[in-house]
Amino acid sequence: MSHPTITLRYFDARGRAQPLRYYFAARGIPYTNELVSLTAAGSNAWPEMREDRARVGPFHKLPVLHYGDRTIAETLVINAFLHRELGDEALLSDSEGLRHSMLISSFYSDVVMNVGTTLWAEAIYAGLDYPAFIRGVLGRIRGLLGRIDQTLGDWGWAAAARGRPVMLADCLLWEELNSLQHVFGEHVGLDKLPTLSRLYVEAPGRAAFQKVLASHPAPITGRGMAAETEIIGRIRGYLAA
Q: Where would you tag: which of 27, 51, 75, 155 has the fewest CB atoms within 10 A of its CB?
């Protein structure tokens, strides 16, 4: 299948764009991965480009996808566009398509947002009891993962994934399981979730995902690698205490 010129523009971080990077890599789709700095000066720095609607889209946010002559903004819309445009939607039944959409929505609203907020929380909320905040977030995430584990088992997700190309829902699932372990370590309890732990280890796109991670190590958020590493160290220390 031929593709137009594709450019994905996002901050130099994993964040909302990493599953899209995995997707292009796993499917062998050529694209330009344009990384934007939150702080540095220059043409590819956020302070200089944030008012350029041609680059940052109608809502002045990232990620933005340029697909040929089309510009698509908003993460969930980009996902839905690629799912349809690249033929994945046609490979799924109506019920399977709904399951993919529901899983993506759940992970973005309940995991991606919680992880990002946890890493930024001290900078956002003055006087925050950070250890208590972390324990509360982790408790909510573990409850969510337990429900998702049961649901994906009921849906037969692992068997279905082996019988089709890697899709965006698979990429998002693996990225968030990886991010959760990166931030919270063993306290996530992935070993107690049989369906999710199997999907993480046996994901059809795992080799491609790991190659992307290794080729350009980046923080999860835009706080920078050094700051994020320090924060994660404290998070794990609080949970181990």
A: 51
